[in-house]
Amino acid sequence: MAINAALAATYPANFLDYDTPLLAAYGETATVSGQSYSLLNAIAMSDGIHVTTGAPMTAQINVLLATLSAKGF
Fold it and tell me: Max alpha carbon distance in the chain (Å)?
């Protein structure tokens, strides 16, 4: 998330924050050694690496389109 904040600060008019709405829709938090991490859940990434196809993928595309629309693209 620090990289996103740096990119948003550097390119405010051209930065597309895809992570925040995607994590809001499909995120979960894991804590390891006292540090919390935001992760996409198994609905979004069934094998833990690749984005799931089908209905969850359609929902993810809708999140992206809504984000683009909100930015005026």
Answer: 41
User: What type of residue sits at position 2?
Assistant: A
Q: Which residue has the tokens 């993810």?
A: 60
Q: Which of 19, 25, 27 is nearest to 1 (CA)?
A: 19
**What single-letter amino acid sits at 49?**
I
pLDDT of residue 32: 92
Buried b or exposed e, range 13-49, using 16+ CB within 10 angstroms: eeeeeeeebbbebbeeeeeeeeeeeeebeeebbeeee
Taking a C-beta distance cutoff of 8 angstroms, is the pair 41, 28 a contact? yes
pTM: 0.53
